[in-house]
Design brief:
This protein is an alpha/beta fold. It has 13 helices and 12 strands. The strands form 3 sheets. A 5-stranded parallel sheet has the order 4-3-5-6-7, sandwiched between helices. The protein has a 5-stranded parallel sheet with strand order 9-8-10-11-12, sandwiched between helices. α2 runs antiparallel to α8. The protein is globular. It binds 6-O-phosphono-alpha-D-glucopyranose. Keywords: Aminotransferase, Cytoplasm, Glutamine amidotransferase, Repeat, Transferase. It comes from Alteraurantiacibacter buctensis.
Length: about 375
Amino acid sequence: AAIEKGTFQHFMQKEIFEQPTVVAQTLRSYLRPLERQVALPQMDFDISRIERVTIVACGTSYYAGMVAKYWFESFARVPVDIDFASEFRYRDPILPPGGLALFISQSGETADTLAALRHCKANGQTIAVVVNVPTSTMAREADLLLPTHAGPEIGVASTKAFTCQLAVLAALAAHFAVKKGRLSAEQEAEIVAHLLEAPACLNAALDHDAEIRAMAPLIAPARDVLYLGRGQDFPLALEGALKLKEISYIHAEGYASGEMKHGPIALIDEAVPVIVIAPSGPLFEKTVSNMQEVRARGGKIVLISDAEGLAEAGVGCLATIEMPKVHPLIAPLVYAVPVQLLAYHVACVKGTDVDQPRNLAKSVTVE
Ligand code: G6P
């Protein structure tokens, strides 16, 4: 049956709104809610013996991999290398025997990622893939297939596949940590409980749609937009900038908040909106001081944070978007929603072709 937009104006919009459902659907196949345990598919290798992980992907899938690097390293204490697929083979990567190579791809067909997969296979790596198309080439060539259950994604700019990738990667990181003896049953139960909160928190994030639509005209005239994030929110800044570029054709850059003073700060003036992605928490104070640096130069800030963060630093912002207070593990999933919606509504203000942006393809099958 043909996939319809229903009451939505664009497939991208529909796919953004499907996230609570498809993330729940994806989590269902990786968690045992009653036992409060993660449940990964059968593996014919011993994951507890993996000493190193190599993550390779492109585009939005690459940013999901960047978040996963934080999780694998902090939970399982396994060092992770991550590369753009188009760069990977050409740096002659060191692939020690017994390593796990993880490929993330919505389509499972991206040529650079597939070439990297085959390179890793030829070099004795165990191949795990997180893909949304279970019949894809990558799925067929994997030792371990970890499907996302996002359903067909039609909009060229990836949205629901991203949050589903994050859901799978969080479960994999937790499983990895359990097998490495780094998480007690109690800690595992806690992680599972937080993951199960994700769909409701995604819904709460979607409740801000009208508010984000109302602020889109403030961003639409900009020539450049800067996105800032720290720690696991840095990849979200990159993803926010990518979404805006892809569909609104506004030049946008994602930067690590603390790195702003080493360059992008030179660009800041009243005409460059700065989108700050910063849930409250141990890193928040540092980000607040980065925001002051922006303000001192006349920069206009859109702060995306929770009630606590907004109470502390929301005054004087051009706009704020309030997210629910969430556990850090699910923050990247939840904060993906406002950056997707912001890009979407800005593109609508500009009247671009949201689902089929110029020069872009859903799946890039040439290297
Ligand atoms: C293209 C799409 C992006 C996607 C990237 C990677 O550039 O436009 O939305 O993130 O490919 O695709 P993959 O299917 O490998 O995730």
